[in-house]
Design goal:
Helix content is 33%, strand content 27%. With 233 residues, the chain is of the alpha+beta class.
């Protein structure tokens, strides 16, 4: 892990009087702990689209990067499954138009272009400084399971491998991670290690109030953090 990179990201954000990291920064932070994120480029100007897109393999995902837009999808700031440069240019133009209609004067720091992650089992992991219990880690199945059923488990940080595995097995949706209805089991080992890494980040960097990966895609081998949010103290 590269703690210097992570701490510099936090320092730069705080010096800019920001209390959240931009998504590109948040992904750099967790990457410093060895958590996989989609290959990406940050594009500042539309004229650079073609040159920057050539560094990646389609299909693409385009996301607005703005400290004023916390919920990108609701603002029209996310387009997925972009297959080529023509579609990418159209997506950029439409996105800028949609955002300007909903938010007349947002500060836009650029656009994050990513390789679209392959489908996996969606889970959510998070860590926060609870006012009563202190540093706490959360795990749950993604999508409807966490939103409606509140199917989550908690542990105090820091935690070890045994505790991380217990968290995973506690949720009611655990069978979805194993051989449920003939599906192939996912990489529980990598998932537990990622939970531990999130715990370590919270303990190591005291300026972080909350960090969340939602969704984290879990595969037969490995994981991929698709969306990351970091809130600072």
């Amino acid at each position: 892990m590269n703690k210097k990179v992570a701490k510099k990201l936090i320092k730069d954000a705080l010096s800019s009087k920001r209390r959240t990291l931009l998504e590109s920064e948040a992904k750099k932070l967790i990457s410093a702990w060895g958590i996989s994120t989609p290959k990406s480029v940050l594009i500042k100007k539309k004229k650079d689209i073609e040159a920057e897109a050539k560094k990646l393999t389609p299909p693409y995902v385009l996301k607005v990067v703005s400290q004023d837009i916390l919920h990108k999808s609701e603002a029209g700031g996310v387009v997925t499954d972009i297959k080529n440069i023509k579609e990418l240019n159209n997506a950029w133009t439409k996105m800028v138009k949609n955002i300007s209609h909903k938010m007349p004067t947002p500060r836009i720091d650029g656009f994050l272009l990513e390789e679209m992650a392959s489908r996996g089992v969606e889970v959510i992991i998070g860590a926060l400084r609870d006012p009563q219990f202190g540093p706490t880690v959360m795990f749950g199945l993604g999508g409807i399971a966490v939103e409606l059923l509140k199917d989550v488990s908690y542990r105090l940080a820091p935690l070890d491998k045994k505790e991380a595995l217990e968290m995973i097995r506690e949720v009611k949706g655990y069978p979805l991670l194993t051989r449920f209805r003939g599906s192939k089991p996912v990489d529980i080992n990598s998932l537990s290690e990622t939970i531990i890494k999130l715990s370590e980040i919270l303990i190591e960097i005291e300026d972080i109030k909350e960090i969340e990966i939602n969704p984290l895609l879990v595969y037969e081998k490995g994981v991929m953090a698709v969306d990351v949010r970091v809130v600072l103290i």
